[in-house]
Amino acid sequence: MSGGFAGQPSTSHDLQHRRIAPRSKPCVHRASCPVHACGVPTVGNTGLVGWSSKEPPLKQRNAFTIVELLVVVAIIALLIAILLPALGRARDAALVTQSLGNLRNLAAANATYGADYADRQFTLSGDDFGLAAGNCGTYLNTIGCPGQAILGWDDSGGLWGYWLGGGQCPTNYPGNCGNWIVNWPNEWNFTNGFFGYYRLPNCKPFNTYVNGRFYDRAFVAPKDKLTMERAEEGMGDPGEFTILPLAPGQVVFSTYVWSPAALWSPDVMSRNGFKQPSTLPGAWKCPSQGQAKYSELKTRMIELYWLQNQDGGPTNPGFSGGYTPWYFNQGNSSTPNAMFYDGHVAGIAVSEVMDADRRARAGWNGVVGAPPTSGRGLWHTGTPLGANGFYQQLSFDMLADTSFHMLTTDGILGRDVMGAK
User: Fold this and answer.
1) In whole angstroms, what is the distance from residue 406 CA to residue 417 CA?
2) How open is the CA angle 252-253-258, to the nearest 5 degrees?
3) In angstroms, rounded to a whole number, what is the distance separating the alpha carbons of residues 349 and 400?
4) Are 300 and 333 in contact (CB under 8 A)?
5) d(CA 380, CA 310)
6) CB of 197 within 8 A of CB of 149?
7) Is 408 in contact with 261 (CB distance < 8 Å)?
8) Which of 250, 271, 252, 246 is nearest to 261 (CA)?
9) What residue segments make up the domains of the chain, in order of their start?
10) Does pLDDT of 47 surpass 50?
11) CB 403 within 8 A of CB 329
12) HEC string of 366-389?
């Protein structure tokens, strides 16, 4: 992968496939209503009241004056000025509601997956990765072949994925250790754009619980216009997956992402100090969803990008390539939609999350045996990413200062929001 800040994994992650034999596969009628004209009573010379069929002359009407026309125009302009913002807000609210609906569907998919796999969360990591200290070659050659990050079948019988071949894997598996990071929850530097399988809820092993397709509207927030535009070609393709040559990296990922912090063992993101996964045999063992200590306060999935109250433009100029949108934590006014471990969905104001983080840190003041400063907040500042956390150095404004969801202190045992003040 290329250096610098990259919003997508670089092409060093070779997306490969192997050929597999294709699978068998009133009129409306108007009634006639007679209209009778009535005369107008007149008084004759005899003093008798009679009837005349002659209609009285119509009163001549003057045309509108310029002043009257200007008044009408002004009233129309005023109504437009009042109604347009209201219509815009109504449309925006409808799109937010659609995104929350997507998250509810994904909550159901996560719950169903857990029911099928003994309460486990979705993972592409082997529980025993730590036995090889997270080293790909050691694992493949001495322990086994991990599960593969499969994206789906194309319409001609090719099975695509971030294949990881070699070692004890079947000889017809393509790929190599260049794709190893895809089997991690996330990497701990920016070499690969902080990539990991937390970005892949639309991969085949999980999308089976949604609609069975990599490119599906269930994985794209309606307000995420860039992702929607890039993925639309794939949505119309007959296969489960297809390469999109014009998209960055030829693959378009989901708007919604899991919390990478909650996919590691809680010991990795411990309040008592961050621990390198390579030093913990159980670091890659993904916790069960039932381990969420504050299930109503810990986010499980979130809109990765800044979509609500966005005023920074479509892409973040701080990233190379010119195609990466602003992330959800890069604007003080951002309010990403999220799904929590108890299954409820809601919008979360970044400003409120930052206030909660300050309250959490202040709560440790004067406490004997308090954890290190880096682990006192709701998000961990002691990871290899440093105090800037998840791309905060590229934020739109100086006020944004949070990496909640991504770097939650104590992982699945932690909180991203707090209760009432």
Assistant:
1) 13
2) 175
3) 11
4) no
5) 26
6) yes
7) yes
8) 271
9) 83-413
10) no
11) yes
12) CCCCCCCHHHCCCECCCCCCCCCC
